[in-house]
Each structure stands twice: as C-alpha cells, then as structure tokens.
Recover the amino acids of this structure.
C-alpha cells in the first residue's frame, strides 16, 4: 500500500526512532509498504519517520540511479535496514546535491563522509555488518539521519539554510507541489 509522506514541520521527523523488536508481526508488511511508497514517490530511500512511524527502519532502492549507465553499481542496491547503527565514518568528506521526499522541491549541497561501516538486521532478521562508499554511503547516511531526527537541511551551510527558510515555511503550511501524497502539520 502506498502511504502518504510526512513533510517538513511534522514533529515525527525530529524524533529519534525506537528499536524494532525481533518478533514484530507487522514488520514485513511495513517494509513492503515503504518500498511501494518510495517507488510511487520517485525516491531512492525512505525512512520510517517519513511515513509517520518513529522506528529505526529505512529502505533503499537506488536502481533508478543506475539507468542510462549513470552508476551501474547501484543497480542491485535494494534492501531494508532494521535497527541500524553506523559503526564508523571516514574522515574524508565529499559534497553532493541531495533532496528529500519530506522536503519537496529543495535540493542542496551536503557534505558527508565518503565511506561508512554499518551494522543492521536485514529482512530475515540476520545481523549484517557492511562497508559502503560513494553514493551508497550517502544514501544510507541520509536515511540514517532520519532515524536520529536529523534532516539534510541541518547539514548545509547556515547561510544557505537562511536563504531557503521561506520555502521551508511554505512546505510546512502545505504549499507544496509534488506528485505524491503528503501530510503536513496543517493537514494532520
């Protein structure tokens, strides 16, 4: 089922997500719904807080970024991260433009470590520890931030943040122009 995306101004986006118990009955359906919502919204990642659930869960599917030979390593990058913990971040950082389904219409340069090591449970509840770099590391860090109550705009230059403040206010007031269903503070 495609779910509405919570946008800037919703308090759930600023809360730290709660751990998911291993015997959670609804987890598989939630993961399926999150993948459907992400695809319907043309996203490459979606965290549980973005659909109103304060849980430590995010899904990624970066295969659209591999089309037309853009980034072939992303073709098979589709998975769920349950109760993830970033164990290590490289000291070297790279900046790249990011956007977010919860902040429609805004894209900004965001510096992030170029390599990470992460521990998480997969959909079969198998504990994994993996290292990622480049675009995959960026996508994971962006989604992981959602679980910590952090938005990508928190990581941009303060001057840029000031320049987009009126656009952010408009988003929180429901003045958005996107092709997917959203929930904002005034519609709740």
């Amino acid at each position: 089922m495609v779910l509405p995306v919570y946008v800037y101004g919703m308090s759930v986006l600023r809360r730290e997500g709660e751990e998911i118990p291993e015997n959670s009955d609804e987890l598989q359906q939630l993961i399926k719904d999150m993948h459907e919502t992400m695809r319907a919204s043309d996203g490459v990642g979606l965290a549980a807080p973005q659909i109103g659930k304060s849980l430590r869960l995010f899904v990624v599917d970066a295969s659209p970024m591999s089309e037309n030979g853009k980034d072939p390593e992303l073709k098979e990058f589709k998975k769920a991260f349950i109760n993830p913990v970033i164990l290590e971040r490289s000291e070297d950082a790279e900046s790249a433009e990011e956007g977010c389904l919860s902040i429609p219409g805004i894209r900004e340069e965001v510096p992030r470590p170029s390599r990470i090591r992460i521990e998480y449970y997969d959909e079969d509840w198998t504990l994994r520890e993996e290292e990622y770099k480049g675009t995959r590391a960026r996508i994971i860090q962006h989604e992981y931030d959602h679980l910590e109550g952090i938005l990508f705009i928190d990581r941009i230059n303060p001057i840029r943040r000031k320049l987009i403040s009126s656009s952010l206010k408009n988003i929180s007031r429901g003045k958005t122009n996107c092709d997917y269903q959203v929930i904002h503070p005034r519609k709740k």
About this structure: The chain has a mean pLDDT of 93. The beta strands are 5-6, 45-47, 57-61, 78-89, 93-100, 103-113, 115-121, 127-133, 182-183.
